[in-house]
């Protein structure tokens, strides 16, 4: 698989326009996992935004807390690794924020309905 990947990248190197070469050749560019991991992680942000419409009683406190912690931790990490990965930073900030909102909603719901049970 590694040889196939390297041959593919060499072939693509020739067709990428000159003005996009700095991005293409960047240590966190499209030829690396540093680019694609954040791209796919935006799916978590989209799911979190979609979940804002869910009733608060269906939200999981532990899941929201875990995802919020992950967003905060990886936001910090993305700025201390080399190369700095601002794409990873931005997606993790949004993961953290959307999940902190969900966490607040879930805890607030449980607090308000605690006396009803």
Question: Any overview of this molecule?
Answer:
This protein is an all-alpha fold and 117 residues long. Helix content is 71%, strand content 0%. It contains 5 helices and no strands. It has helices spanning 2-13, 21-25, 33-51, 61-80, 86-112. Helix 3 packs parallel to helix 5 (86-112) and helix 4 (61-80) runs antiparallel to helix 5. It is elongated, with a radius of gyration of 19 Å. It starts with a helix and ends in a 5-residue tail after the last helix. The mean pLDDT is 90.
Our estimate of the beta-strand percent is: under 5%
User: Helicity, in percent?
Assistant: over 70%
> Mean pLDDT across all residues, rounded?
90
Number of β-strand runs: 0
Globally, the shape reads elongated
What is this structure, in a nutshell?
By secondary structure, the chain is an all-alpha fold. The protein has helices at 2-13, 21-25, 33-51, 61-80, 86-112.
What attributes characterize this protein structure?
mainly alpha; 0% strand; 117 residues; 5 helices; 71% helix
Helix and strand layout, with pairings?
Elements: H1 2-13, H2 21-25, H3 33-51, H4 61-80, H5 86-112
